[in-house]
C-alpha cells in the first residue's frame, strides 16, 4: 500500500529543507509548528547545529492559537526576537497544522517585514513533502530577493552579457567562466568535504566559483551570483534557484555531480557548452527561451541515455536523490558497464530522469523495482527491503538516515574508486 | 567556539545579555514569557518512541506527516528497533479527501499483514492532524480490534499541539504504557513501580522498602517479554514517583483495581519522611504486612548520611559555581535549595516553567537565596548562551545535560529524569555524582547529543 513503510526510514521533510538551505546565511528561520520539528531538525537533519550559531526556531503554536487563528502571537514573537537578534532576513516555514488552518504565509511575512524592516519570507511548506521541495523553495526565495542585479549596480561587476565575450575568447575552454553551485546542503552532501571537493574540482577545471548555495558562502557572496555565467545544479534542491536566476538574469545551468573518473570531464564540457549554446540561442531568439529548454546536460549525454541495456536482470539500482543518483548511476554504467537505474525517492523534475529510471516515493514502489537487481546502492536503512540475491552497497545519506551513519558517508567526488571496489 | 554564520551581522550576546531573571524577581510558575523556541542540542531525555518500546515485543505504528515521522523513525533506527517500528504517511490529499480513518485502518492493516511475525501488541500513534480533523478514533480502534482479535491495540498520541491543554503528551504516553494490561487476580505479595523510563535503583529507599518487605516488584524496565509484562496486572499497589506518571497511575488503578500511590520525588528530608510513611501505610493496608515504615533510628541514620555526603561534597568543590537544569530530575529547585542551604554555590537553574512540586522550594529560594539566577532553555537568546559562557571562561560544574551544554562544561552530571533515584538515596547519590563530575571530565559534546540516555542505542 502506498504511504506505508513497514521498515524503511523517511526522508527529511520540506520544512527542514528550508532550514537547511538557509542555515548559513545569517537569517532567522521559524518553523511554524507546535513542537517536535525543531528537535527533529536539530538532531537528525542538521549536522552543523552544535557548532554554528544559526537562528532556527519553532513557533510553539498551541491548540488554542490554532483554533482561534491567532497569527498575531506568532507575528509579535518574531518581531520581538528580531529586534534583539537583528537577523539578515526572516523566513517562516509551514508544517501540517498551519496547512490545515489555511495560514497565509505571504501575508504574515509581509506584516513582519513592514514592522521590522527586515526582508521576510513565507514558505508554504506542509511537512508532507521531502526536503528537496523546501530547500528548492527557500533557495528560489533567496534568488528572488537577495541576488543583486549587476545592471543596476554601481560596482564594477560585469554583466552576464559582457561575460559571454569571455566564452568567445576562451574557445570552449573554461578559463574565466564563472559558476554558482546550486543545491548544496548537508542533507545530500553531509559535512565531510564534498562541497569543497566540488569547488576544488571546478577550480581545477579552470572555472571560477562565485557562490555556493548554500554551504560555505555568506549572504554577501550569494548576492554576487548574477556575476556567474552558468549555474551548476548539484541536487534537485537547486532547481528553484536555477529557474529564478535564469528568469532574472538569463543564466543557464548544467546538472550533475562530478562523481567518477569519466563523468566529471563530461560535466565540465557540458558547463562550457551550455554557456556557449546559451549565447547562440540568445542571439538567434527574439525572446528568451523557456526555462526548461535550458536543460542541456541530459540531451547531450552527461547522464547516459539508455542503449538497449536490460534493466530486468543483472542490473544495479541506485536509490536516493535524483541528481546525485543519476550522476552515480551514469558513472557506474560508464566505468563498469553495468546497467544502472535510478529509483528517485525525492522530488525531481521528471524530464531529467531516463526512461529506465523511476520515481519511487514509497516502500511499495521500490520493492518491485529491485526484483532482479544484482547490485543495490542505497542508504543502509534501505537494506531490509533489498532482496538477498542482490549485493547491497551502503551509501549513507543524511537526508534518509540522519546522523546514524555519518562517519561512513563517502566523499564520492574524491574517492569514487572506493565504491567501485565494493561493487567488484 | 561556535562559528559565526554571518560575520557581517556578527550576532552575539554577552553573558549578561543572555536572558535570565533573579529568582527574587521571578514569577511562579512561568518566569519567562512564551515565544519562539530554541532547541538545545542536549538530547538525553526520552521521547514517546523510547517509552513505547519498553513494552516487550510490541510494534509501534506512527500515522502522521513525513516531517513528524522523521524524528520518530530515526529514534527507532538509532535504538536498533526498526523491526518493531512502521509508519503511515499522511499526505495533503488525505486532509482534503476526508479519508483519514480509512488511511489509518488500511495502513495499519497493510503493515501488520507484512510483518514477518504477528506482534502481541500494536501501539498506534495518531497526531495533531487527526485531532484537528475530528477523526473517529473509537471507530478506528474498534475496526482494528475486530480485524486482528489476537492483537492488543492501544491508542497513543504524537500531538504536541496539546502540550498546553490537558494531559501533556508525556503524561499521556506514560499512561498508555499500561493500557494493554489485562485484568487478572490480584496478588497481595506483588507491587509495581510504574511510569519510569529508567529502572529504579536497587539501592534506592523505595526498593529497600519494597524488597525488604518481601514483595515481588514489577517494573516495565525489567520485563523481558509480553507475558512478563502482563504479570504486572497482578499488583495490588502501583507506585509512581515521576510526577508525569501520576495520571496514568490513577487510570490504571481505576481500570484494574488496586491502589495507586504517587511517591513524591524530593530532596527535602521532611517531605521524604512524609511520603515514605504514606507509602508504608498504603502497602501495609494492601498487603496485610506491618512494620514497613522506616523507624526513627533508620531515618536519623539516613539524614546523617546525607549531611555527611553534602559536607564532603562542599569540602571538595568549594565555591565552584554549580548549575542545574530541569532534565536532571523533576525537582530542580528542590535540589538547588538543598545544595545552597549546605553552602554549595548554585548560581543558575535552567528551567522554563517551575514544576508545581517545586513551589515550596521556589518560595524558600526567593527569600533565602534571592540572587540565584533562573535561565530559560528555549528562549531564542539561548542560542548564543554557549558562546557567551565560553567567552566568559568561568569554570562551572553542571548538573544535567542542558546545563552542561549551555555552560559549555565537560564537568557535568550526566543523568536524566532522576536516573532511578528516590528518597534519601537521591541526595547521597547526587552528591557522589557531583564529586565525580568535579574530578572527572566527560565528552560533553558527544554525550549530550545521544537520544534517550540509558536506552538501548547504537549511535555513539
Helix content of chain A: 40-55%
Number of helices of chain B: 18
**Overall geometry of chain B:** globular
Across the major sheet of chain A, the strand order is 12-11-10-13-14
The pLDDT mean of chain A sits at 90
**Radius of gyration over C-alpha positions of chain A, nearest whole angstrom:** 22 Å
Main sheet summary of chain A: 5 strands, parallel
- Oligomeric status: heterodimer
**In CATH, what is the homologous superfamily of the largest domain in chain A?**
Nitrogenase molybdenum iron protein domain
How large a portion of the residues of chain B is in β-strands, by DSSP E? 5-15%
The strand count of chain B comes to 14
The total beta strand count of chain A reads: 14
Biggest sheet descriptor of chain B: 6 strands, mixed
Q: Which sequence of strands runs across the widest sheet of chain B?
A: 1-12-11-10-13-14
Per the principal axes of the C-alpha atoms, what is the gross shape of chain A? globular
Low-confidence stretches of chain B: none
Largest interface, and how many residues on either side? A-B, 79 and 71 residues
Work out the radius of gyration of chain B. Answer: 23 Å
Helix content, binned percent of chain B? 40-55%
Number of domains of chain A: 3
For the record, the count of structural domains of chain B works out to: 3
Characterise this structure.
The complex is a heterodimer of chains A (424) and B (460). By secondary structure, chain A is of the alpha/beta class. Chain A has three domains: 14-129, Nitrogenase molybdenum iron protein domain (Rossmann fold); 150-294, Nitrogenase molybdenum iron protein domain (Rossmann fold), CATH 3.40.50.1980; 315-423, Rossmann fold (3-Layer(aba) Sandwich). Chain A is built from 17 helices and 14 strands. In chain A, strands 12-11-10-13-14 form a five-stranded parallel β-sheet, with helices on both faces. A four-stranded parallel β-sheet of chain A has the order 3-2-4-5. With 460 residues, chain B is an alpha/beta fold. In chain B, 40% of the residues lie in helices and 14% in strands. In chain B, helix 4 (100-114) runs parallel beside helix 6. Chain B starts with 20 loop residues before the first strand and ends in a 13-residue tail after the last helix. Strand 1 of chain A pairs antiparallel with strand 3 of chain B.
Amino acid at each position: 500500500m502506498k504511504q506505508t513503510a513497514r521498515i524503511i526510514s523517511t526522508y527529511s521533510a520540506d520544512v527542514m529543507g528550508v532550514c537547511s538551505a538557509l542555515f548559513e546565511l545569517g537569517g532567522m528561520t521559524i518553523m511554524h509548528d507546535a513542537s517536535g520539528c525543531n528537535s527533529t531538525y536539530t538532531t537528525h537533519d542538521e549536522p552543523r547545529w552544535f557548532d554554528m550559531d544559526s537562528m532556527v526556531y519553532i513557533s510553539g503554536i498551541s491548540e488554542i492559537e490554532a483554533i482561534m487563528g491567532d497569527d498575531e502571537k506568532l507575528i509579535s514573537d518574531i518581531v520581538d526576537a528580531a529586534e534583539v537578534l537583528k537577523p539578515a532576513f526572516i523566513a517562516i516555514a509551514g508544517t501540517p497544522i498551519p496547512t490545515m488552518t489555511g495560514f497565509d504565509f505571504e501575508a504574515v511575512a509581509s506584516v513582519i517585514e513592514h514592522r521590522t524592516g527586515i526582508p521576510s519570507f513565507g514558505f508554504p511548506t506542509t511537512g508532507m513533502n521531502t526536503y528537496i521541495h523546501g530547500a528548492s523553495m527557500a533557495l528560489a526565495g533567496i534568488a528572488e530577493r537577495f541576488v543583486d542585479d549587476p545592471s543596476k549596480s554601481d560596482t564594477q561587476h560585469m554583466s552576464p552579457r559582457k561575460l559571454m565575450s569571455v566564452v568567445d575568447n576562451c574557445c570552449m575552454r573554461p578559463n574565466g567562466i564563472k559558476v554558482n553551485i546550486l543545491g548544496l546542503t548537508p542533507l545530500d552532501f553531509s559535512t565531510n568535504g564534498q562541497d569543497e571537493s566540488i569547488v576544488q574540482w571546478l577550480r581545477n577545471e579552470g572555472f571560477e566559483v562565485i557562490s555556493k548555495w548554500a554551504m560555505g558562502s555568506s549572504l554577501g557572496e550569494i548576492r554576487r551570483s548574477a556575476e556567474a555565467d552558468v549555474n551548476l545544479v548539484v541536487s534537485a534542491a537547486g532547481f528553484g534557484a536555477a529557474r529564478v536566476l535564469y528568469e532574472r538574469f538569463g543564466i543557464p545551468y548544467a546538472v550533475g555531480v562530478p562523481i567518477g573518473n569519466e563523468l566529471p570531464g563530461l560535466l565540465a564540457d557540458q558547463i562550457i557548452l551550455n554557456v556557449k549554446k546559451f549565447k547562440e540561442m540568445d542571439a538567434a531568439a527574439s525572446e528568451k527561451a523557456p526555462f526548461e529548454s535550458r536543460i542541456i546536460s541530459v540531451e547531450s549525454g552527461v547522464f547516459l541515455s539508455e542503449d538497449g541495456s536490460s534493466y530486468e536482470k543483472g542490473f544495479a539500482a541506485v536509490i536516493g536523490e535524483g541528481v546525485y543518483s543519476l550522476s552515480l548511476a551514469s558513472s557506474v554504467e560508464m566505468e563498469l558497464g553495468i546497467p544502472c537505474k535510478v529509483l528517485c525517492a525525492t522530488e525531481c523534475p521528471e524530464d531529467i530522469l531516463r526512461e529506465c529510471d523511476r520515481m519511487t516515493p514509497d516502500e511499495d514502489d521500490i520493492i518491485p523495482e529491485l526484483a532482479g537487481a544484482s547490485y543495490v546502492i542505497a542508504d543502509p536503512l534501505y537494506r531490509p527491503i533489498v532482496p538477498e540475491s542482490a549485493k547491497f552497497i551502503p551509501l549513507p545519506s543524511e537526508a534518509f538516515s540522519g546522523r546514524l551513519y555519518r562517519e561512513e558517508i563517502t566523499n564520492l567526488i574524491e574517492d569514487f574508486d572506493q565504491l567501485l571496489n565494493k561493487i567488484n | 567556539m561556535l562559528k559565526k554564520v554571518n560575520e557581517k551581522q556578527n550576532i552575539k550576546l554577552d553573558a549578561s545579555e543572555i536572558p535570565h531573571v533573579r529568582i527574587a524577581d521571578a514569577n511562579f510558575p512561568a518566569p519567562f514569557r512564551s515565544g519562539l523556541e530554541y532547541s538545545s542540542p542536549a538530547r538525553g531525555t526520552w521521547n514517546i518512541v523510547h517509552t513505547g518500546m519498553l513494552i516487550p515485543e510490541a510494534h509501534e505504528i506512527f500515522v502522521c506527516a513525513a516531517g513528524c515521522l522523521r524524528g520518530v523513525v530515526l529514534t527507532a533506527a538509532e535504538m536498533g528497533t526498526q523491526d518493531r517500528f512502521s509508519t503511515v504517511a499522511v499526505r495533503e490529499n488525505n486532509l482534503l479527501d476526508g479519508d483519514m480513518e480509512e488511511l489509518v485502518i488500511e495502513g495499519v492493516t497493510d503493515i501488520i499483514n507484512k510483518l514477518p511475525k504477528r506482534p502481541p501488541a500494536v501501539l498506534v500513534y495518531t497526531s495533531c492532524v487527526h485531532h484537528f480533523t475530528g477523526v473517529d478514533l473509537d471507530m478506528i480502534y474498534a475496526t482494528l480490534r475486530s480485524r486482528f482479535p489476537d492483537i492488543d491495540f492501544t491508542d497513543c498520541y504524537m500531538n504536541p499541539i496539546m502540550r498546553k491543554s490537558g494531559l501533556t503528551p508525556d503524561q499521556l504516553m506514560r499512561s498508555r504504557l499500561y493500557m494493554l494490561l489485562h485484568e487478572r487476580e490480584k496478588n497481595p505479595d506483588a507491587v509495581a513501580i510504574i511510569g519510569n523510563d529508567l529502572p529504579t535503583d536497587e539501592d534506592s529507599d523505595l526498593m529497600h522498602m519494597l524488597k525488604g518487605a518481601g514483595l515481588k516488584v514489577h517494573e516495565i524496565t525489567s520485563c523481558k517479554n509480553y507475558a512478563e509484562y502482563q504479570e504486572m496486572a497482578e499488583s495490588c499497589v502501583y507506585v509512581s514517583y515521576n510526577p508525569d506518571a501520576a495520571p496514568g497511575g490513577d487510570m490504571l488503578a481505576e481500570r484494574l483495581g488496586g491502589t495507586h500511590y504517587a511517591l513524591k520525588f524530593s530532596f527535602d528530608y521532611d517531605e521524604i519522611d512524609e511520603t515514605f510513611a504514606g507509602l508504608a501505610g498504603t502497602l501495609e493496608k494492601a498487603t496485610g504486612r506491618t512494620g514497613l515504615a522506616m523507624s526513627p533510628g533508620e531515618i536519623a541514620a539516613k539524614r546523617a548520611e546525607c549531611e555527611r555526603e553534602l559536607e564532603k561534597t562542599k569540602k571538595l568543590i568549594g565555591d565552584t559555581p554549580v548549575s542545574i537544569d530541569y532534565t536532571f530530575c523533576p525537582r530542580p529547585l528542590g535540589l538547588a535549595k538543598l545544595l545552597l542551604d549546605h553552602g554549595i554555590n548554585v548560581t543558575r537553574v535552567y528551567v522554563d516553567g517551575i514544576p508545581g512540586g517545586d513551589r515550596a522550594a521556589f518560595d524558600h529560594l526567593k527569600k533565602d537565596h534571592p540572587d540565584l539566577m533562573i535561565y530559560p532553555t528555549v528562549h531564542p537568546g539561548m542560542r548564543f548562551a554557549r558562546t557567551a559562557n565560553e567567552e566568559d571562561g568561568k569554570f562551572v560544574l553542571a548538573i544535567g545535560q542542558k546545563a552542561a551544554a549551555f555552560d559549555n562544561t565537560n564537568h557535568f552530571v550526566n543523568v536524566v529524569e532522576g536516573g532511578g533515584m528516590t528518597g534519601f538515596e537521591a541526595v547521597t547519590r547526587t552528591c557522589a555524582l557531583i564529586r565525580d563530575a568535579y574530578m572527572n571530565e566527560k565528552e560533553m559534546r558527544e554525550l549530550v547529543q545521544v537520544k534517550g540516555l540509558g536506552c538501548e542505542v547504537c549511535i555513539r
